[in-house]
Amino acid sequence: MFKYNSQLYTDVRIEKSFSTNIRFRQKEMENFLEREENGVFIRIYNGSKWYYSSFTDIKKIQQEIDILSDLALKEKRENDLLEEVFEINTGDQRLFFKEKVSDIKSSKKINLLKSYFPLLNQEPLLKTFTATYLDKYIEKEFVSSLGTRLKHDFQYAGVIFGMNFSNDNDVFQEKFSFASDDFKRLNTLTSKLAKQIKDSVNFLNNAKPIEPGKYTVVLSPSAAGVFAHESFGHKSESDFMIGDDTMAKEWKIGKKVGADILSIVDDGNERGMGFCPYDDEGTSARKTYLIKDGYLSGRLHSCLTAALLGESGTGNARALNFQFEPIVRMTTTYIEAGDMTKEELFKSVKEGIYVQSIKHGSGLSTFTLAPSLAWYIKDGKISHPVKVSVVSGNVFETLSKVEALSDEVELLSFAGGGCGKMEQYPLPVGFGGPYVKVSELMVQ
Amino acid sequence: MQFEKYTIDERQTSVSIENSETASLRRKNIKKTGIRAFDGKKMGISGFLGNDGEAIAKKKAVENLKRGVDYRFELEQDISRNEIDIKRKISDDELLKIADNTTNWISCEFDDFRFSGRFFTTMNKTMLENTSDLSLSHEIGYFSMYYTFKKKSSTSIFDGFLSYSGRDFEIEAFKRYSSDLLKAYDNKAKSPSSRMPVIFAEEAVLGKLFNELNPHLIESGSSLLSGKIDKKIFSEKFNLINGRIAGVDLEPFFDSEGVVPDNGIFEIIKDGVIISPYTDKKISEKYGFKKTANASSAYDGMHSPSPQGLRMETTGNDLIDVINDEKCILVVMASGGDYTSSGDYNTPVQLSFLVESGKITARLPELYLSSNIFSMYGEDFIGVASDPFRKGNLERVFGAYMKISSQETDV
């Protein structure tokens, strides 16, 4: 297909994408966008450095390979590390091309949004709303000098309702978001949206400031998923360990890092926003336990990090789009279920906070969650809404303070947003978990 | 039928650093063009990448008028202006040398740290042309870089970061700043008193204010600033404008509708008084707010009002005097904080330094900061100034008095 320099490793990723963005503000359409983009990303490895090129003219692929090869040959080093870990997959592995979101008429997408307008207009304290429909179908062709010839695809369709509530005394902004790889599922959101509107009105009218301090916190499945992603997922991305003896020692597999009941998984095979059956190096997805029963069990890899650490690839080398190189990223990250019912878990909290929805999270040595809807728990029952700006805790202390898990896992996919790592944002990811009870988190 | 062509042409080379060594070189060349069709009532758009595709995009833009968005405004016309704002072109080889030399220097000078990061040289050209003789073009070149750093003995992914962006790379200024900060890193100070001047990079503090200045929220009563237009609610020293500040801004001199401010400035907040939310043509007319030339769009998207390009005005020497005369906190990493619906602000601070007599002297323990949107820009506002620690750095600093509490005890 292309001529490669035999002294260098080369791969070519060709991406063809279709996306839609339709936005209404109340009844008025503010944006209608259908976009088709084609682009190429080339990587060449000379044994010590990578050489990349990103461009849009598919006719120039060979020319760019030749330019990069000349650059790379100047500092060529003997190094066949990559050959040992690359998974050579071939074939047409597309799953969605018979039911592409790009084949759905735009009028159907517009009507989908409009079908939710009566519900959004019904609540007098919901003063204004935006309704956004997003979709994307992306087809990737990946070829390499080692023999990979792979074609695969990914898609999602989603809605976001941004809602602005106000009464005479207060204002409150909340967002409802949902995404799926199946457009039809977007027609089934009425009861969930109605509940979120009702909860938001309750919050607007009754929320009290929280007394800052340490509380037992119950995380909803979405908050638990973000907690897993931020508190531990990023620390499982192995690129930060390369060449760092301190980290290799600190992150030794088998080390106790959390409560006995805690298991955290990353799995690109789970359908949704984190679905990634092949990563951007052509490696197939697998279920990776990051923590199993409280013990460090695995980490996420690209081919290079796997080779350098002497471990196996995990299918986690992902690029934001054709403009970027793949780096180690999560796919769908979640906490596994425990053995309590949701009701039993709430009953076990004498006094605490329930975080129902969140605006964002972050995870360094201290992880943070910024709740949107939060509630006070008194004697095992939800009492009243509380205004909380941030919930935070030391990552490792907190992982050990996970006291209870409910017995069902919910995996969630949201439209818009995603995971950020350095310049590559927002990458679609999935996350979730059961209801999670954690003691002694700082609430402000 | 009228047409507009909106083009964004980005050429960028970047060099990545991993574990204090050059790891990769990336060349990027992405040209994006949107064709807009107008029939006096609606606007239809279609876009393409690269150089081929204009005829097809034009046809699709006309087709998209059927479902297009209402747009009944006159296009900007009869203006021809081209600006080139490039101080120095940095070649790929030069960038590699800059990255290598800087990384060699910092990793030798501070050999108990590891450094990763990226160096960029970017050339952006934005063009807007239409069938009413509008021809605007803005070309800008700039340099930017960042390092994340960690102590070799540290078990964190990273402990902090260093960054710089400018028309050129003032390497001596970057070295001085990096040396001061990394030397102070090992000098640990105790958690400071409960209220102190706090210095942030300006970008870190404006998000909530921009959200509350959203014209739709203000009009609907859903913003903390609703009902406060023409009222003085912030410090009289606090000014927010849409206007390019020479040597600071990277944005073009026109918005996505092609509006070029006559005197270079639209006022949003003047002497602490809210003058107007940010608007585009449609929103200004719909709600009766002032025009502020804040239309923004993707290359192939519809216009919408955006805070992009809004800037706080610098406030004389107020902040610099405080930095030189009082003990201050310089915030380097404060990730994960947010506001409540009442405007109360809390954030954990992962990395900050004590500044005494204008010098970075010691690292502070992890702490919490709290304030409120009205006091942060009101009675507690100190000022805005060019970065006193990194000469030539584009990002300025913001200062306000805030409540400080230790992460261990006194929340």
Automatic annotation (TrEMBL), chain A:
<dbReference type="GO" id="GO:0006508">
    <property type="term" value="P:proteolysis"/>
</dbReference>
<comment type="similarity">
    <text>Belongs to the peptidase U62 family.</text>
</comment>
<keyword id="KW-0378">Hydrolase</keyword>
<protein>
    <submittedName>
        <fullName>TldD/PmbA family protein</fullName>
    </submittedName>
</protein>
<feature type="domain" description="Metalloprotease TldD/E N-terminal">
    <location>
        <begin position="11"/>
        <end position="63"/>
    </location>
</feature>
<dbReference type="GO" id="GO:0005829">
    <property type="term" value="C:cytosol"/>
</dbReference>
<feature type="domain" description="Metalloprotease TldD/E C-terminal">
    <location>
        <begin position="212"/>
        <end position="443"/>
    </location>
</feature>
<dbReference type="GO" id="GO:0008237">
    <property type="term" value="F:metallopeptidase activity"/>
</dbReference>
<dbReference type="InterPro" id="IPR045569">
    <property type="entry name" value="Metalloprtase-TldD/E_C"/>
</dbReference>
<dbReference type="Pfam" id="PF01523">
    <property type="entry name" value="PmbA_TldD_1st"/>
</dbReference>
<keyword id="KW-0482">Metalloprotease</keyword>
<keyword id="KW-0645">Protease</keyword>
<dbReference type="InterPro" id="IPR035068">
    <property type="entry name" value="TldD/PmbA_N"/>
</dbReference>
<dbReference type="Pfam" id="PF19289">
    <property type="entry name" value="PmbA_TldD_3rd"/>
</dbReference>
<dbReference type="InterPro" id="IPR036059">
    <property type="entry name" value="TldD/PmbA_sf"/>
</dbReference>
<dbReference type="InterPro" id="IPR051463">
    <property type="entry name" value="Peptidase_U62_metallo"/>
</dbReference>
<dbReference type="InterPro" id="IPR002510">
    <property type="entry name" value="Metalloprtase-TldD/E_N"/>
</dbReference>
